[in-house]
Structure formats: structure tokens, C-alpha cells
Amino acid sequence: MPQQHHTQPGDRFNRYFKIAPALCDQLRNEVFHIRHEVYAREFGFEPLRADEKETDAYDRHSLHCIVKTADDADHLVGCARIVMPDPDAPHAPLPFEIACRDTLDRSIIDPAKLPRHRIAEVSRLAVMADFRRRKGEKLSADASLNEQDFGGVGVHRFPNIPLSLYSAAVLMAQRQDIEYLFVLTEPRLSKHFAKFGVNITPIGEPIDFHGIRVPSVMRVAEIYPGLRTLFRPIWHAIEKQLDVAYAAGLPVVSSQADFETNSELLALH
């Protein structure tokens, strides 16, 4: 019998996708467009806007990552946001601290008592509809997880995009010395992530925010050591792509002044 050759998950990710931190206005605007298409146009969670960009006040002090197809830089796939504490008001609450003010179980963890420079929140994860559809599956703003997305005989689906975006968010947060990443997740998400060794700990009662969501936390330092073997090649591929982008790109945005500085630097490139 002829020997079968199967592409490794990391190689498959690189073949299909490019993932990068949104370090310039052009990439950030593409992130905002993805969010508008998913959260406003498709699901109606946010109002439609003439400029087709979904933004809010937290974007001023957030990091963003974006996924596109590898063969077409104009083909947008998905995005995620890491909300950092406001450098001008570090004790101002993150979005989940407001939404879950009355439902957090502070005996598990109390974000108000943590060093503000060591916490952040992953939010506004969005995947374009064409990359969420599976036969017979109801659509949601992200997408469910399935081990078949990570390779195997006869499997040809894309590597899982939401978990890849969360991985990029963790890697980007790690660069900022973030210790705790908070997230509002669908109830099923922590169970799906557990399949791949990602520990997401619920820290409060569910709330109704763009559907039922559970406040949860990830310890950044614990994510990679806990990953199952099948996902590590994709993690390494994402890490390498981010490293290349940071090496070639601009400083991480953390304030409005940085936005303006980056715009000036872009003119020099």
C-alpha cells in the first residue's frame, strides 16, 4: 500500500490562515469591520453604523488580533480583543466587572483586589459566518469546538478559529505580563476548551449579555502547560506568526497617544 501523508495541524493552520496583532489603523479598522458584520449586521447585538465599524470606548486601551485567509489578505475571518486597564484610570472597571457586578463569586477571585496591571479581559471575539457554518449546526457569534478540526485521517475542515483566537489573545497578554485573563463565555465553552486542556474557571452566575454568558477566568501561565498534544502544533504556529508580526510591526497600542504615534510612524514605512 502506498504510504499516506497527512499534513500536521500547525502546517494546516499556516496553509489556510494568517493571524496577527492589529498594530496599525488599517488592521484595527478591519477588526472593527468584522465586529460590525457579526455583532451588528448578522446578530443585531449592536446598532448598524454608516462606517460599518463596531467600536466602543474600551478600544482606546485594548489590544486586537485578526485572522485572514493566507491566500487573500482581503478575506477577513475573525478577530478578538484584549481589554487592558485604562492607563489614565487604572482602577476603572473592565467590561465584565460592570456586567457581572452583582453575580461574581468573589470567594473564588475578586478582580477588584488584584494588581490592575496584571489583569485583562478577552472580549468581542467574532468569526465571520462563512467560517462558522457546519452542516446541521446552529450559528453563534463564535463557533463550537470539535476535535476533528485538529487533523486526522480523512479530516479536511479548518483548524478551529475561536480557540486559535483565544490562543493569540493569551500569547499577546503574556507579552504584557498579564496574569489573569477574564472572559464572558457561553456555558458550553469551558467544556469545549477542556477537551484541549484549556482550563477556564467559572467565577460567577450566568448573565444575559448577547445570550447567556458565564464570567470566567484563565491563568495565563497555566494555559500552555495544560494544552493537549493535538493542539500544541497550532499554538506554536500562532506564536511564530505573532512573533514575526511584532518583529516587523509597530509598538503595542495602550493609549490614545500611542494610536497617534503609530499613525505617524506608519507614514514613515
Automatic annotation (TrEMBL):
InterPro entries: Acyl_CoA_acyltransferase, PEP-CTERM/exosrtase_acylTfrase
Entries under Pfam families matching the protein: Acetyltransf_5
NCBIfam families, per database record: exosort_acyl
Designated name of the protein: GNAT family N-acetyltransferase
